[in-house]
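Reminder to self: tokens first, then the designed residues, so the page reads top to bottom the way the pipeline ran.
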């Protein structure tokens, strides 16, 4: 019997087993996530530093622009244009004095003509300053061109009146009608056209400074709030980074990060303090400097104009009432006192009656000396008018050219002194603001740049441990 061996099938090939996935331990997770978190926190801190730097740059830029416009550019030019009114009114005042003198007072006529030429030069320079200030404003430039054209017409009429005056060879206070007819055209042109335009031109130019002041002040205040917010955010991120590094690496706080935190806080606080100081400088420069200087310059111009009305009052008897009313209106704009005519006005001033300051308000701190000089000037005016109304015309002319001229010069000198004080305050305040900003930019960029370097120095050794 044949025994058949059972066929045994070969053992199946052992299938290739899959490699098991590595076990992810908690330690591996920590090694993988800590660098990412450190980089994230470090990037956030650097972004906060960049925001802080940008806000400092924008804030100081706005503050610098405000100081530039008020203290170095438009502000001084506006004050210069305020001298336009003074120059124009004094030109007409000198012409009136020369015509009033006639062939007498030879030396004073020469002085008056010299003053006339000086004021004409000043007026032309003020118009040039105004033209530069009106860059890009067609309406204002058109006004300036109109003043220039009118000034040319005035000079021709004034020159003709002065020529006729020389040819007539008349005595003081006895100006011929032919001379007066030409002078009336000249002074009407000056009083009714040129002076109002010059005054309005100064007001319009002043709006540039006020608009810049308001805009830049608002911008700096807003940027200061942003700077404070960025500083708080940067400080919080520094603390978070320090605490995370200390917890993750079980080490003490990094000295480099501590120094970087200190530099950032110091730079931010100094920036906020400097911007606040510059805001005060801008406000003071405008309020105690620009506004006061400009108003004092207007007071001088109005005073000079009413002094010219005194000469016109004697020069042209046919228009004496008109010039007397003009004198009263201008006097009331300087110091308001009860009284419907010049005599009542003088009486109120003499007895220290009810008064209120007009354009002399900026000199309130120095009102004792200024008001005393103003009252002496008005008293001299009353004596001059009393002589004129009594028929003593030569004596009235002499009083106008002697006592009244001296009292006006004393009053004007008081205003000049006050104006110089305000100009010194203006210059000092602007310089203080400029100095504060210069100091900020000598500190802030270096401090924030050093802080960024120290952040890298404090974080880099920790990141190297994962390489």
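Designed residues (467 positions):
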């Amino acid at each position: 019997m044949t025994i058949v061996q059972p066929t045994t099938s070969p053992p199946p090939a052992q299938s290739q087993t899959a490699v098991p996935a590595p076990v992810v331990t908690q330690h591996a997770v920590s090694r993988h996530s800590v660098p990412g978190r450190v980089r994230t926190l470090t990037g956030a801190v650097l972004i906060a530093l960049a925001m802080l730097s940008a806000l400092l740059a924008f804030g100081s830029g706005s503050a610098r622009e405000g100081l530039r416009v008020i203290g170095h550019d438009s502000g001084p030019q506006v004050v210069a244009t305020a001298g336009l009114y003074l120059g124009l009114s004094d030109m007409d005042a000198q012409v009136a004095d020369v015509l009033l003198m006639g062939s007498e007072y030879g030396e004073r006529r020469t002085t008056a003509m010299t003053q006339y030429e000086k004021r004409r030069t000043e007026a032309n320079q003020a118009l040039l300053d105004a033209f530069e200030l009106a860059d890009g404003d067609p309406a204002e430039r058109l006004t300036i061109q109109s003043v220039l054209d009118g000034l040319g017409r005035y000079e021709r009429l004034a020159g003709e009146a002065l020529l006729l005056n020389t040819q007539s060879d008349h005595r003081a206070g006895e100006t011929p009608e032919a001379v007066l007819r030409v002078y009336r055209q000249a002074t009407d042109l000056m009083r009714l056209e040129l002076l109002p335009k010059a005054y309005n031109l100064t007001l319009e130019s002043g709006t540039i400074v006020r608009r810049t002041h308001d805009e830049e002040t608002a911008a700096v205040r807003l940027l200061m709030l942003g700077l404070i917010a960025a500083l708080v955010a940067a400080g919080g991120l520094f603390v978070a980074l320090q605490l995370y590094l200390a917890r993750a690496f079980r080490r003490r706080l990094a000295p480099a990060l501590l120094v970087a935190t200190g530099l950032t806080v110091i730079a931010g606080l100094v920036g906020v303090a400097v911007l606040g100081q510059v805001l005060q400088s801008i406000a003071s420069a405008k309020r105690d400097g620009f506004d006061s200087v400009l108003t004092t310059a207007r007071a001088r111009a109005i005073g000079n104009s009413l002094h010219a009305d005194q000469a016109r009052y004697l020069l042209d008897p046919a228009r004496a009432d008109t010039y007397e009313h003009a004198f009263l209106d201008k006097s009331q704009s300087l110091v308001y006192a009860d009284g419907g005519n010049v005599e009542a006005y003088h009486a109120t001033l003499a007895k220290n009656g009810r008064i209120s300051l007009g354009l002399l308000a900026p000199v309130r701190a120095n009102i004792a000396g200024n008001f005393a000089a103003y009252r002496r000037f008005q008293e001299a005016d009353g004596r001059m008018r009393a002589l004129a109304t009594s028929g003593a015309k030569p004596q009235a002319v002499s009083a106008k050219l002697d006592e009244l001229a001296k009292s006006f010069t004393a009053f004007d000198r008081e205003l000049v002194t006050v104006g110089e004080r305000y100009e010194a305050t203006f210059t000092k305040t602007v310089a203080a603001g400029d100095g504060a900003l210069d100091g900020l930019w000598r500190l802030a960029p270096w401090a924030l740049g050093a802080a960024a370097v120290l952040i890298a120095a404090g974080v880099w050794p920790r990141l190297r441990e994962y390489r």
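The chain has one domain: 37-352+362-464.
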